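User: Structure tokens for this complex, please. No commentary.
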Amino acid sequence: MEEKTKFELNGKEVEVLVDKNQTLLWTLRTNFNLTGTKYGCGEGYCGSCTVLMDNEPVRSCGIAMTEVNGKKVFTIEGLEKDGQLHPVQKAFIAHDALQCGFCTPGMIMNAVGLLMKNPEPSRQEIIDGMEDNLCRCGAHTRIIRAIETASVEMKGGSQS
Amino acid sequence: MKAERINQYYFHDVNTAPGKLGRRSFLKNLGGGIFVVFALGGYGCKPRKEGDIPEFNAYLRVREDGQIDCLSGKIEMGQGANTSIPQVLAEELEVAINQVNMIMGDTELSPHDDGTWGSMTTRFHDPIIRMAAAEAREVLILLASEEMKLPVSQLKALNGKIVDKNDEENSLTYAELTKGKKIIRSVTEKPVLKKPGEFKIIGKSQLRTDSLPKVTGKALYSADIHLPGQLYARILRPPAHGAKLVSSDTSAAIAMNGVRVIQDNDLIVVLHTSFEKAEEALKMINAKWEIPPSKADNETIFGYLVKNASESNILYHGGNMDAGKKEAAFLFENEYHDGYKAHATIETHTATALFEKGKLTMWASSQTPFGTRQEVAEKLGLAKENVHLKQIFLGGGFGGKIYNRQATEAARIAKLVEGTPIQLMWSRQEEFMYDMFRPAAVMKLHSGITKEGKINFWDFNIYCAGDRGTQLFYEVPNHKTTTWDKSDLHPFGTGAWRAPGNYSTTFARESQIDIMAHKIGMDPLEFRLQNMKEGRALNSLRLAADKFGWTKTKQPVGIGRGIAVGEDAGTLVTVIAEVEVDKTSGKVKVRRVVVGQDMGQVINPEGVIIQAEGCVNMGLGYTLTEDVVFNWGEVKSSNFSDYQIPLFSMIPEIIETSLADAMDQPPQGGGEPAIICMGAAVANAIFEACGARLFRMPFTPERILNALK
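Assistant:
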């Protein structure tokens, strides 16, 4: 059954009429053409579909639209502010913290969520926080480094 | 370079509507500029014969605005070719790397290419691009000579201009020289290339050129193409390979709102504007299958392979095997096993396709766009000119996207619903079903050494792992290497996986070397040094050992180090791993890995290091956790929950790479070599740490505990 869902998407109020069981992942991809959020496994194991919902990193493949009502959702497309990349995005570029790039949006969204909760994570805390996001190319080493760099830059107070 | 200022060499034109631009009219329809085309043969770039316009193998264009278009049949799947190719082009053409626009893997725009695999881009494609760029530079100098009324010998290319050697202020930009012209040049003779001493860009680290679209979510992969009216397609799948459809009832699916069901012989497809609705409808189909009897599962497969791989081939043979065996002071006979592994790219096989007016346009996650075009054309009965594969990013490949069943399936569906665009994105379960797995393999090794620790006998029988990298770089007077295989031996499709077979044979060889060294109480590094021929393998071993700081000192309890040496894609590589083993739980933590590589000329040193790190991190999966679980055609691994690829907690805290200084040598492969050594390096380190000798990958805690008993 189709239902109206109202929520905030990348800072803008939006409304969408979709089946109430449709997941946030496919709503973003099909209804909003926000294809940065990726399907990787469909069951919450890989983290490629990670977005922020009320500042919490969530697996959008497992979130039904009924749960999204009234929530604030941020996707990779909404991370830039006033034409400036988010410090995590900048750090991923500076450290070559990606290869094929398919897991990257999920990695970045998860890292942003991690840094919101813990602005100065230790290496071990980064590993623990990123543990459930999968990368097949083996960019892990650089992703950890990029998150460390972003943490230092964000501590400087440029962006939250 | 500041990250935010990186130029975005983004794939252009990925979203434009299907065009009518044919290869023949391509040169006619494009604007002005200087075009350099190639009719040279070469590995991975077959010359073609048809037509009056030369069919080109490599191609670049100096545009009227001074920008350079580089058209390449290669694809970008994360390996960084869209950074290294512009580097070699920019080097020869004397432009900045951000002036190069890459157009890759488009079957109407790019020159023919056999596919992006085998670490061949840098080895075989870059040299051609360099020649094309050098040729373009010579054309620009000729044009400048006419306009500036100066002899060619007095001119040179510098920073996107042709300048007077006597007065560099006296110059013309490429844009000025190209404006209003259309010059087509075919390279017939090898142009003069720069010497390594003259390099400004080759050999200098360069950040990836595609990071900006990838960190902003703008990079488009096959599933990100959305055409108006597009439907998602889901295909009815059998529960096992080889299963036959006995009966099917699609009525409940058809009754669902907005669902379209099509049946074409064995193909049953559900289509909907929503992926999830299509999925729901698919589950409503009531199908009965007949599953063939099982011949083996993941435990019994090794005996099955040895028994049935009846076709043998002697690869290398030298000396006298009987004499070698007799003269050996110690003999060693071991059997090594390696199970099936999945490519498990995070992007599943996907194709978005539209069949309209007799022509198919497709965006497919394919490492072989030209091969896929051929295959699709044959399956659909179309001329290959009527199949257009468009440029797109790939979410990983590792050999798995050489095979494009999804593309032929999507093409078939698109033709059945002519005029309606469709997208076929395999689910993770389908990916685990139809992946062309890395084959399980058995290696039987019988070897012998003298009292002094010289290898004098080596009888290597390889089942289902092929011959890649099996030429011995150890000096062995009496040796024989034989491969065994047979077609259709495996319960499901198998194929190339990052350095095919080499990880299996290297695991066996380098474990056996370690076993022999320990038998006579010799340090495994010293044993290798005394048995290795002088050459690049030895060079890579020395590089790694120096970087690691290898000593003969006894390690603390639970800590071990392991060495493995190998050859792949023209590169000689050594990996040294340091591990910590918990003898109570059997858990292994790889703490540090050092890679030593002799790979000839290096285009992008940081790119090479990234690939080596990727090999180490990805390699830990097949070494420690990955194993496809199956009962004959029924693949039981179905998602990342039961097929564990590397996690952040598994990767080593330290990875270091040491490269041989060999800029004057031809470039060799970098994307695959280091991964082949991970199994043996970790196996040997586990042995030093706790005394457990492992003969089967992956080294699960259970197998380690069993080996300790």
